[in-house]
Amino acid sequence: MSAQIWPPISHEQLIKEEGDSLKAAELEWLLEDLQAALASLKSGLEECLAILNVQEPGTTLALSTLRSETVKGFVTR
Length: 77
Prior knowledge:
By secondary structure, the protein is mostly helical. It has one helix at residues 11-52, and strands at residues 60-63, 73-76. The chain starts with 10 loop residues before the first helix and ends with a strand.
């Protein structure tokens, strides 16, 4: 059993349509994945904002470098 497209289109047009369909599916997947990443980023930034906006005097944060997790100092706000 075979399927035919009506009205018939050229082979080049069929390949173009298939390519457009794949691009649309890929874009949809990318946007869905990006939404999840942005939601995670937003929650992380909100958590950092909550830490920095503490109204109590004397909030202390530890400082370290990217290469080492040893504490280099403290910042008190």
